[in-house]
Amino acid sequence: SPDCSLIKHFVVYTNTIMAIQQFRLTACVVYTAIVISSANAAQPASVLCSLNGVLSADGSCTCDKPWTGTTCETLMFKPVTFPQGYGMSPNLTSWGGNAIYAEGKYHLYVSAMTNHCLLKTWGKNSRIEHGVSDTIEGPYKFTDVAINTWSHNSAPVTLKDGTYAIFHIGTGTGSPNGGENCTVPQSDSKLSWETFQEFDAKMQNVDDGSTIHTSKSVAGPWEPLMTNTLGHCNNPAPWVHPNGTIYCLCGNSVKRSESVSGPWTTISSLSHAGGPAGNYEDPFLYTDSRGNFHLLYHVYNTNENKYECKNSTVSAHAFSLDGFTWNISATQPYTTQVELTTGETITVATRERPKLWFDSNGQMTHLFNGVSSATSCPPPNGPRTGCVDCKYNSWDYTLVQPLAV
Predict the structure, then answer these.
(1) Cα–Cα distance between 169 and 147 in angstroms, integer?
(2) What pTM does this model have?
(3) pLDDT tens-digit readout, 93-106
(4) Distance between CA atoms of 297 and 266, rounded to whole angstroms?
(5) Which helix (H) or strand (E) segment is 108 a member of?
(6) Number of helices and strands in the chain (H, E)
(7) How far apart are CA 21 and CA 289, in angstroms?
(8) Would you tell me how many other CB atoms lie within 10 Å of the CB of residue 223?
């Protein structure tokens, strides 16, 4: 009989982490093959655990909290207590952001709609508001307007010199209360669903897609960075490495700079092939305690079930040992399902603009998202694009869900 002690595990390299597959080798016990994406078959075994854990001798992954699953591909959450986040108390349409802890408080910089408007007017009415809370989960209380209309997709960071920057789209050169006046209830016919898609497509090529505002204080004032050399970068995803280097994902390109003013160098590009099927946007870039690079995305698929949103695609996770060679998981790290402390689980039609919060030890503890309060928006009255666009005609808010750490 064969010496089974010599057989540990083996790896099959293809275009994605597709599955954990089991094989029986002659008279030996069942062993595990992990199918994984890699442009370089010499990558170490940690890649097999999505760079979220370590591979044991028996071929299984021991995952870092809050990750779980056979390849450490899924985030674990704690239940949410309402009201919390931003836009719940009082109700206000907001669409994601992130916080900075300073002066004993949590300071949230969040995209919010002016003049009681819904998200359908985000291209005119969005501004970046500053909210403050004693706890990371909130609810955050409005304090001031950080950046005027039009500004959106707030990505605040603390720079290595202790000052602050907010990367965003839009220039913020309008008035604090710019945009349409929506104090009168909006009509479903005010904008067509086709108009939403045309506007989103147009935004892919705007010249003001990478404005940066900086401040010496979390209270502001926030001034536009006149020496910004990042260039066009729709929905920039900045991350300040512990060594002070700034990385930023622009489209599918990873850029690097030693200063928020630049110059910026493109170090790699990545593909989404093999990840969850759909359209990728709203990236969040970060590094972990081992120095690995990760990306969270919002992903949507307009070909999915339009009658209910429980199983809609909303997320993806990509990862890299060095920021140059990237892998992507075929499994969503999180879904549209949100568990409450009441024991109820709610469905949010879409869950976008992911931003992770890390504590002073570098441990991720919370996930921020812009979410739709609608559970579905089925035909014939709903959008042709399905669940992803329920957000335009419903109340949306910023969710802060604790991770299971």
Answers:
(1) 11
(2) 0.87
(3) 999 999 999 999 99
(4) 20
(5) strand 105-113
(6) 2, 28
(7) 29
(8) 11
